[in-house]
Design brief:
The protein has 8 helices and 8 strands; from the N terminus they run ααββαααββαβαβαββ. It has about 260 residues and is of the alpha/beta class. Strands 4-3-2-5-6-7 form a 6-stranded parallel β-sheet, with helices on both faces. A two-stranded parallel ribbon has the order 1-8.
Length: about 260
């Protein structure tokens, strides 16, 4: 072995011993010993948490854009209707101590509901009042405390409901058919609650429904708008508010409803 070869062999031995100490640093001669940082479970979990956080931010941003883009659904203007008093009934919903007394917008309806009641009574229209017994339909069943100006008078029918659809579990349908009623006028509380579901119950039983739009409401403007939209687009839809479309809902107003 030449002298140069011996020197190189000695340096190689020293280098290998040095690398065996696993000294790594900038400029380290152990290039073959350099390794990338190990991807441990701990670092993987951190990445997962970061991805989840980013996804949550994306979803929040999308939701914010969607909410900002939402608009209240528009509805057609109420239309005038003339109704035959012999084949028409007026159903007043939930204008009672519960739930109306605690709802300012419900209290505001009383004057218009009272005027509609007066017009119906004057022409002999069948008048029915309905509310839910706060204690449920259990014995003894008592008449809900209707608010004074719109309370039933002697001889008027009262339906105590167990659900928002007052056809469900009651004799309302039989009561109407006994009098050959084909058109049902709805008023009362609330537009996207009992009134909406009772309207659906009526149209699937082939009744034509007229909603006195100014004699019903809901706690929020959005509830009212959605209620109107659903009334006109449910099942047998009437999106253009065609007056008295058969087995559908027509939006009218107390001053536009004429009983003859």
């Amino acid at each position: 072995m030449t002298e140069d070869a011996e020197i190189k062999a000695g340096l190689r031995v020293l280098l290998n011993r040095h690398c065996a100490l696993r000294w790594r640093g900038i400029g380290s001669p152990c290039l073959h010993e350099r390794r990338r940082p190990r991807f441990t479970w701990k670092s993987k979990r951190g990445w997962l948490q970061m991805v989840r956080l980013l996804m949550a931010c994306v979803f929040v941003a999308i939701a914010a854009v969607s909410v900002a883009a939402q608009q209240l659904p528009t509805s057609p203007e109420p239309v005038a209707v003339t109704l035959d008093s012999k084949t028409t009934a007026l159903l007043v919903l939930d204008v009672a101590e519960s739930p109306c007394r605690t709802q300012p917008k419900c209290i505001a309806l009383i004057v218009r509901v009272a005027s509609l009641l007066a017009a119906a009574r004057k022409t002999g229209v069948l008048v029915i009042h309905s509310s839910a017994d706060p204690s449920g339909i259990t014995a003894p069943i008592t008449q809900p405390p209707f608010l004074g100006p719109v309370a039933p008078v002697r001889g008027e029918r009262v339906i105590i409901g167990g659900s928002q659809d007052r056809f469900y579990g009651t004799l309302l349908d039989q009561m109407l058919r006994q009098r050959s009623i084909g058109t049902l006028v709805l008023a009362g509380w609330r537009e996207n609650g009992s009134l909406l579901y009772t309207a659906v119950g009526a149209t699937i039983r082939d009744y034509t429904v007229v909603v006195a739009d100014d004699a019903t409401s809901a706690p929020q403007d959005y509830d009212v708008a959605v209620g109107r939209y659903q009334l006109l687009t449910q099942l047998n839809a009437n999106p253009t508010n065609e007056p008295l479309k058969r087995a559908a809902v027509t939006l009218s107003r107390t001053d536009l409803i004429t009983f003859r």
